[in-house]
């Protein structure tokens, strides 16, 4: 049985090999549409501080695409993904999108990164290049004028739930640690707004390096702030480093929180039992649930593909993204075009995907609004 890293490599290699082995698309057909396949592009930072969650996200996407391909594809066409590494660097994302525009892809799937997506939006809008799924909930990315269809809730909703929950149980002195980039800054701003709304006080607003090489200074500022709860808007490795460093110098970090993108699984793998009690906002149903139909289908498909150990929230998100793509293509019929695909997605209205609702209209591309509060428990188990 192949592990999930092998699964991603093999699926990507098969996709690239298929594209190279077959001839050019038929005259008059849409970009990326061939008689036997539809080719999508993906720009993402596997080789970055977010590599773990991004791989899980992609696993879920590929698992469902491969599941559909095994049944004959969509209207007889296999779904192929060509991936380009961007290292979580916005300039590389832009270069990758430019390359994809010359490389005959139908659209993009499962992008990632707030700054990365923001940097690419002008190109995406200019060329009306459909994008389904981007691993960010930043409000500036959620422009309904762009052909970007989101498959996750927004960060503002997550941060609001964090602060609301904390103040409800009497934790009103709030510290914020945020990456010094677009992702971190937008969430720091949301935290300030949430604090004002729910009567909390921001006692420390701590910017830190994207590379995560300033942990001692971050921990010193947190200790000086004497916060009752800490919101950590950063990568899994940095969260783990902060938990470990704070424990060694000052004892447990008081009531820490992470966003859904900061993979709870990755945090547990890096910080072990020190992660127990970390609060998490989740924008997908629990991947271990047998009650929610989407989660149950996700488990069954991944088990069949031999990657059933990747039962992560990020993989569920990628899986949902793939289902949205497939439904949009099915609605296009035998001759999909980018313009038709965009219009069919905008015609979804409120559509249920196994217990999770996705809402698209012409002037609403924000997708789900699902947010729940959970916690990392013993052995890394998510308690919701």
TrEMBL record:
Keywords noted in UniProt: Signal
Entry superkingdom: Bacteria
Family that this chain belongs to: Belongs to the leucine-binding protein family.
Leucine-binding protein domain segment(s): 55-376
Protein name: Leucine-binding protein domain-containing protein
Gene3D superfamilies cross-referenced by the UniProt entry: 3.40.50.2300
Pfam families the UniProt entry points to: Peripla_BP_6 (PF13458)
């Amino acid at each position: 049985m192949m592990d999930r890293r092998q699964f991603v490599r093999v699926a990507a290699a098969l996709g690239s090999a298929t594209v190279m082995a077959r001839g050019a698309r038929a005259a008059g057909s849409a970009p990326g549409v061939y008689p036997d396949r539809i080719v999508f592009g993906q720009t993402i930072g596997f080789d970055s501080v977010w590599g773990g969650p991004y791989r899980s996200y992609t696993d879920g996407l590929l698992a469902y695409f491969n599941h559909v391909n095994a049944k004959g594809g969509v209207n007889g066409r296999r779904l192929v993904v060509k991936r380009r590494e961007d290292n979580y660097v916005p300039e590389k994302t832009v270069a990758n999108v430019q390359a994809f525009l010359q490389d005959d892809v139908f659209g993009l799937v499962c992008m990632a990164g707030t700054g990365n997506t923001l940097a690419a939006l002008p190109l995406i809008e200019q060329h009306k290049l459909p994008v389904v799924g981007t691993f960010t909930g930043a409000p500036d990315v959620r422009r309904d004028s762009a052909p970007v269809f989101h498959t996750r809730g927004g960060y503002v909703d997550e941060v609001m739930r964090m602060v609301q929950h904390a103040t409800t149980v009497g934790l009103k002195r709030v510290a914020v640690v945020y990456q010094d980039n677009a992702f971190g800054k937008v969430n720091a701003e949301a935290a300030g707004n949430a604090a004002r709304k729910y009567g909390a006080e921001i006692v420390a607003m701590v910017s830190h390096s994207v590379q995560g090489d300033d942990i001692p200074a971050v921990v010193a500022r947190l200790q000086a702030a004497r916060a009752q709860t800490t919101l950590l808007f950063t990568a899994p490795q940095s969260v783990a480093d902060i938990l470990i460093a704070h424990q060694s110098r000052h004892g447990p970090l008081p009531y820490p929180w992470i966003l859904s993108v900061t993979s709870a699984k990755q945090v547990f793998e890096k910080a072990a039992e020190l992660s127990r009690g970390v609060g998490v906002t989740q924008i997908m149903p629990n991947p271990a649930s047998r009650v929610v139909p989407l989660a149950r289908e996700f488990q069954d498909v991944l088990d069949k593909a031999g990657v059933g150990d990747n039962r992560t929230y990020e993989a569920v998100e990628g899986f949902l993204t793939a289902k949205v793509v497939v439904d949009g293509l099915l609605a296009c019929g035998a001759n999909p075009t980018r313009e038709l695909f965009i219009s069919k997605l905008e015609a979804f209205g409120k559509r249920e995907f196994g217990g999770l609702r996705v809402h698209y209209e012409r002037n609403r591309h924000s997708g789900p609004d699902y947010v729940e509060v959970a916690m990392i428990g013993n052995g890394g188990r998510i308690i919701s």
